[in-house]
Amino acid sequence: MSNAACLLATFISTDQRDLSSSVADILTDMLTIKGAIDQSYVEDRRFEPFMLWLNAIYAGTNAPPQVTDRDFGVYNEVVNNWGNGQNLSAALEAICVYHLANSEDKGGQWNPEFKKPPFDLLPFELSAICQVRQNSGLETPAVMHNLLPIKKTDLEKLNFSSGDILKKVNAAYEDFFE
Fold it and tell me: What domain of life (predicted)?
């Protein structure tokens, strides 16, 4: 589930609408279809529902209530201050800290979202926030953190072949839900 959310963040960051739409559909099903994933696991997740909330803004759609009617944890401040860029700086810095804290599996029951490369070192969720705000005509404050910045030119170097990725995403979806 976390890998799907990381891919969604990556595709939003690079403005790949066809790919982000496909991954968002899969992630939505994972979170909303009863029995697809253990409900207690889903209830503890913050990053994945937040990415679906962000994707809804990006796609101009509505996220399902199972996604929006919940606590987004560290991401709450982004949601609460979406229209106020001046208050976002501290929230984005907190996301950087959260990202680093959840980029390594330290054992226990928590499944860290960003433990698999390249998502451990590249905070695509922050780039996705910036991309969606830019698309919405909103400015994003500069954030000073070791994880940043991911330069727009670096993101442009990421090349995705839609057909190949969509085939793999669809195969994973069918494997998961069959």
Answer: Bacteria
The CA distance from 82 to 64, in Å, is: 19
| Kind and range of the H or E run holding 145 | none
Q: 175 to each of 26, 72, 78, 121, how far by Cα in Å? A: 12, 28, 34, 29
What angle is formed at CA 129 by the lines to CA 123 and CA 134, rounded to 5 degrees? Answer: 130
How many domains in the chain? 1
Report pTM.
Answer: 0.82
Which of these, 132, 135, 131, lies nearest to 150 by C-alpha position? 131
Domain that holds residue 98: 2-177
